Amino acid sequence: xxxxxxxxxxxxxxxxxxxxxxxxxxxxxxxxxxxxxxxxxxxxxxxxxxxxxxxxxxxxxxxxxxxxxxxxxxxxxxxxxxxxxxxxxxxxxxxxxxxxxxxxxxxxxxxxxxxxxxxxxxxxxxxxxxxxxxxxxxxxxxxxx
Length: 145
What we know:
The chain has helices at 21-32, 37-57, 86-89, 99-103, 111-118; strands spanning 5-12, 60-67, 71-79, 121-127, 131-139. The protein has 145 residues and is of the alpha+beta class. It has one domain (5-143): 2-Layer Sandwich (Heat Shock Protein 90). The protein has a five-stranded antiparallel sheet, with helices on one face. β4 and β5 (131-139) form a beta hairpin. The longest helix has 21 residues, at 37-57. The radius of gyration is 15 Å and the shape is globular. The two termini are 13 Å apart.
């Protein structure tokens, strides 16, 4: 019998020293649960991209995950500037990252498209001046589990 589990990671904006820690920890949790490698790869990519958006743009945020026998659901909520045009932000290569972020190798405009590519379901809600919530779901049933 597989038991549901959930947890939360807190994220601090501009904390590049710890960038990727939450998604890496989630990957370890999924590995311990025996989730198939392909599902772990997809979840890790989507979680990393979402985490980096919080680190780059927001003051703070949190990543909440829920693992059930059927799905992995990850919700990131941030206190950031919000996304004025989600459709535009979903276009590959579109980025509002400042030069110093690009010089660090981030901000290529592939974050949201990569989340969409790796998730089975993606929902983005954003209020300019307040923050953004990104929720994605990856099905375990599709992987044959």
